[in-house]
Design brief:
Radius of gyration: 19 Å
Strand content: 25-35%
Number of helices: 9
CATH superfamily: P-loop containing nucleotide triphosphate hydrolases
Shape: globular
Strand order of the largest sheet: 6-7-8-3-9-10
Order of helices and strands: EEEHEEHEHHHEHEHEEHHEE
C-alpha cells in the first residue's frame, strides 16, 4: 500500500499573467485519495493536465513511478494513468458501452474488456444506458459514463476533474462512495464541494492560484481556518455523527470568528 505512484518535484505552472503553482512537491502513494481544492482559476485543471502529461510544466519534474511523464509515449501513459477532463467530445454516434470500451483499447482484450466496462456501468448506475447513444444522455449521465470509462482503464493512478459535477444528491453520494472504495489505486480529484472532499479524500492539496500551496492529510489541512483563508469567505463546520460538515457562512468574517477557532 506504500507504493509510490507519482512524484511531483519543484513543479511550477504559469499563465502569461501570473504564477499558478510555484515549486510544488507532492507524492501520491497507492491507496491515497487526494482532493485538490481552490477558487475558480487557481490552476486545478491545469495541474491535473500537467500530471497527466497533457501539458508541459514551467519548471520541475513529474514522475510516474520512476519515469518522467514528458518522456512517455501515449500508450505508456494510458497504462499508468487515466484522465477525466471537465469536457467531453462526442463527434459521432456511439453507444454508451462502446464509449466505455475505448478505455480497453490499449489491452486488446475484447471479452474481458466488455465485462470490465459493464461492471463499472453497473456500479455507477448506468447499466440501463449501455445501448443508448452517448450524445443523447443528460449531463449527469454523461459524466458518470466518463467516470466509468476512466475507471475501466484499470490504471494505478486515476485523475478526475470535477467528477461530482452535474450529479443529483443521490448520484453525487454514489460517485463519492465508489471513488472512496478504490484501495488499490491512487486518486487525484479536483472538487468544489468541501463536504465531498471530506468524505472522499485521505489527503488534500490546496491551491491559492498565486503560487501558494498547502498539502497534507485531511485532518491537518481541511480545516475551517485554512478554507476561510483559501476561499476568502467564512467557512465553519459542525460534526454530524462524527462527520465534519462544512458550511459557508453568509455573514462577515468577524461574525464567524468564534466558529472557526
Amino acid at each position: 500500500m506504500d507504493t509510490e505512484l507519482l512524484a511531483v518535484r519543484g513543479l511550477s505552472l504559469r499563465t502569461p499573467q501570473r504564477v499558478l503553482v510555484d515549486s510544488l512537491d507532492l507524492t501520491v502513494r497507492r491507496g491515497e485519495r487526494w482532493a485538490v481544492l481552490g477558487p475558480n482559476g487557481a490552476g486545478k485543471s491545469t495541474l491535473l493536465a500537467a500530471i497527466a502529461g497533457a501539458r508541459h510544466g514551467d519548471g520541475g519534474e513529474i514522475l510516474l513511478g520512476l519515469r518522467a511523464v514528458q518522456g512517455l509515449r501515449a500508450d505508456e501513459l494510458a497504462r499508468d494513468r487515466a484522465l477525466l477532463t471537465d469536457r467531453w467530445i462526442d463527434p459521432f454516434a456511439s453507444s454508451v458501452l462502446d464509449t466505455v470500451l475505448t478505455a480497453r483499447f490499449i489491452f486488446r482484450d475484447e471479452d474481458r474488456g466488455e465485462a470490465v466496462a459493464r461492471r463499472w456501468l453497473e456500479r455507477l448506475d448506468c447499466a440501463l444506458l449501455a445501448d443508448r447513444d452517448v450524445r443523447l444522455l443528460s449531463r449527469g449521465e454523461r459524466q458518470r459514463v466518463a467516470i466509468a470509462t476512466a475507471l475501466a482503464q484499470d490504471t494505478s493512478l486515476v485523475l478526475l476533474d470535477e467528477p461530482t459535477a452535474h450529479q443529483d444528491p443521490r448520484h453525487q453520494a454514489m460517485v463519492v462512495r465508489e471513488l472512496a472504495a478504490l484501495p488499490e489505486r491512487g486518486l487525484i480529484v479536483t472538487l468544489h464541494d468541501l463536504n465531498a472532499a471530506a468524505r472522499l479524500a485521505t489527503h488534500v492539496l490546496l491551491l491559492w492560484g498565486d503560487g501558494r500551496t498547502l498539502s497534507g492529510p485531511v485532518a491537518e489541512v481541511l480545516t475551517p481556518q485554512t478554507l476561510t483563508e483559501l476561499f476568502a469567505t467564512p467557512v465553519a463546520y459542525v460534526e454530524v455523527e462524527g462527520e465534519a460538515v462544512f458550511h459557508v457562512h453568509q455573514g462577515s468574517r468577524s461574525a464567524l470568528r468564534s466558529a472557526v477557532i
